[in-house]
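Dissemination and training. As part of the outreach component of the grant, students in the summer workshop were shown how a complex can be specified as a set of sequence lines and then modelled as a single object. The example used during the hands-on session is reproduced here so that future cohorts can follow it. Participants entered these lines:
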Amino acid sequence: MNIIVIALLVFGLFFFLAGAIGIMRMPDFYSRLHPAGKLDTLATLAMVMGLALYNLNQITLGTILVSIKMFLIVFFVSLASPTATHTIVDAGMRAGLRHWTKKKKRG
Amino acid sequence: MRILAFIVVCLTGAFLLYGTSEFPDWGDPNSPASLHVAAYYIEKTYEETHAPNFVTAVVTDYRGFDTMFETAVIFTAGIGCFLLLRDFRGKKEHYYHHIPTGVILHIKDEKKSLTIGKEFGYMDKEWVPPDLINKTVCRILIPFIQIYALYVVAHGDYSPGGGFQGGVIFGSSLILLAISYDLKTLVKRVSERLLGIFAALGVLIYAGTGVLCLVMGGNFLDYGVLAPLFPGMADHIRALGMLVVEIGVGIAVMAVMTIIYINIVSEGRHDEGL
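and obtained this result:
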């Protein structure tokens, strides 16, 4: 049990780290939103799943309820976070921000 | 220049760190903050009020006057925003869009207007068609946000939370409705008059509870004397009084948040904006 919990937590931490590096290193606004949006869904899912399993060490009604509440958090985050990313990209497109291309053109 | 800035930042940080070394330890019983009334609150709050959350007990019972005037300050902020920004002059020109074709109509005659319905929709200079994804997700999320806000208000005396927090969460759900659809959807469902009445009603509930205590023969906001009104709950009466007051605070904060948002985004016209 503990091994699964540790594996899930490390998996989530790895994705958080990769996402943080991605936000720093990506070249422009839209591609930076890509890791920022991924982080909130996958890494949060993995970490909360690990925490919920850890919480189920002793299975009683109380711990099961707490685990269900944790999964509710994941559910709402995974609904709200991609929508927020979508809306930010939408706002960028409407404001006329051009996306990054490899060739450096003038203007 | 950057080196100079770096040195200044480091010096400031060092001074701040040096300052923190003088702080009392975390949870130190001899620190100035916990020497005077804190011990009394910790020892006596549960006996006197039966509210497990000491913070709520201190804020709405021991210091009820303070919180009442805080609510009045929030009410004043809403009224001030309304008085400063509200603009009752109509616009001279109207724009509409024809929904089936997307053609934009520009009507320059002030007196003429089109009925809004399935055929014509509003149009203004910042109009963007509401996004289907946003609308759907917000429609799913808003009821949950509102239930959570009611939970935060109702459990103010049992867990962290209370009227201010719950009211802000509820107000933010209304603001989310205005952002995901448009401002007119919100104004049509929650009218300006209703919001004004709610803002005043919240303060009235708080002050009315205090006056009710006076009428029942106690001091202002002394919830203990309300016991005859709630038969069988005499030992929880102070916690119940706190709950009533928290509901008042929640209603006032919710209404004022929405009033401020509507007035600021539409420059007081209540017709366009985010």
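The two ends of chain A are 57 Å apart (CA to CA). Students were then asked to discuss how this feature might be tested experimentally.
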